[in-house]
Amino acid sequence: MKRILFPTDFSEVATNAFVHALEFAKIVQGELILLHTFELPVFDNQFFPENYMVIYESVELSQFDMFKDEIPKLRAIAKERNLDKIKMTHRLMDGDLIYNINKSIKEDKIDYMVMGTEGASGWSEFFMGTNTGAALMDVKIPLLCVPMEAQFKKIHTIGFTTRFRPKDKKALKKVLEIAKMAQADLKCLYVKTGKSDVDKETIKKWEEEFAAEPIEFFVIAGDEVKETILDFILYKEIDILTMLTYKRSFFEGLFHPSLTKKFANSFDVPILSIHIE
After folding, report:
1. How far is CA 106 from CA 45, 67, 81, 112, 268, in A?
2. Structure pTM?
3. Helix/strand/coil percentages in the chain, nearest 5
């Protein structure tokens, strides 16, 4: 059974992403591991010699109480969606979020991770402007990022951005497995810019190799990569967009500070990030 890690702070953003995590678990026939982390405050114990441990115990207790109160709410959401049969386990951990995520991935043998973000207008900050975003891009397992604006809808079409590299093919096969489980189609996009170096023969070989699969390939010429991706999402009715990441190189280009407000606020579909070496 596939195991899906869902880090949550019980915020509205996380609750929206929880619905996606539940539905994703249904698709891959998996189980959820809910992770809530918190950091203990740093005090100089020379100023609090007597109540030093009391302060820490109080913080831990308050976190446990919140955790205990919030979990039934999530189970109620699962029941409302008739997904209460999905197995859910919980981890409450103190310490650094990224350290605990990586610890859970290793100890719990995690296959996928799902988490929420503040939304389309916050993509740049999430992937580029914070240590959390930077570290998450190095997570090797597939990561489904859900912006607040992305309300769950049945997955009919998965988009896949590619440059027809050999390592892209390996990632495509991973996404194809998910698409088949979801009974969804895969639409692959290659934006052929003036600097593109992919020849027609390479594209033809890919098309022939995947001819029997529910995959379509689209090659669109143009130098406006971001706008082309947006049009692709809109006109091909993409429900999830897959992007390949190598440290953060793709996102650094896609979510550059020079982005127009229109572009940033239009990006409201979940992103499935596949790490490639």
Report:
1. 34, 23, 30, 12, 31
2. 0.82
3. 45, 25, 35
